[in-house]
Amino acid sequence: MPKLAVVIQDTQSLNDPLCPYIPQHSCSFDFTAFANIGAAFVTEVARVFAVRAGGISKATTRHKHYVIRLLLGWIQANSKSFPTFRRKLFTTYQSILVDEWELVLNTWRDEIVNDEHRRCETSRAQIIRQANVLIENFVGARKMRPISRLAPIKYSSGL
User: Fold this and answer.
1) How far is Cα 93 from Cα 91, in angstroms, rounded to an integer?
2) Residue 8: enclosing H or E segment and its boundaries?
3) What is the pLDDT of residues 107-120, one digit of tens each?
4) Collapsed DSSP state (helix, strand, coil) of residue 61
5) Phi/psi of residue 143, each to 5°?
6) Do 64 and 45 contact (CB within 8 A), yes or no?
7) 144 contact partners, CB below 8 Å, separation of at least 6
8) Strands 21-22 and 7-8: what pairing?
9) For residues 8 and 42, what is the distance between their CA atoms, to the nearest angstrom?
10) What is the three-class DSSP state of 28?
11) What is the tens place of the pLDDT at every residue in 15-70?
12) Taking Cα atoms as reference points, which of 54, 2, 3 lies closest to residue 28?
């Protein structure tokens, strides 16, 4: 799995759609490692991310980028488990059915929740919460159909 914190502190990638430059934060955020799961899909993910990133703090932008990379990396690593989903990501990602998105995202969520050794409960809850915001962003940008929110982690309401 690729490194999760790839942020470029220069303007080399000003015209690279997979590495959008965010002028408000004076850096680019790299998604090129995930182009092999579907270049058109990842380009749209990067575009929606860039649009949203301009209106939020640099720390929040970095966390959103981290969560997207976690999810894309997981999809990349588990592509054989979801061959139809994977094929649609690569060819016509907008044809992915709600049930397909929900199956993949809930499976990813379950792995994050059950990852007790690598992350504390608060971190896992923040990742799930941020994933729900990202899903809303992609639905709002009409890049995916509306789906159910990922279930929050119990006892994380104090965040």
Assistant:
1) 6
2) strand 7-8
3) 999 999 887 668 88
4) helix
5) -100, -15
6) no
7) 93, 94, 96, 101, 135, 138
8) unpaired
9) 18
10) strand
11) 799 999 999 999 999 999 999 999 999 999 999 999 999 999 999 999 999 999 99
12) 54
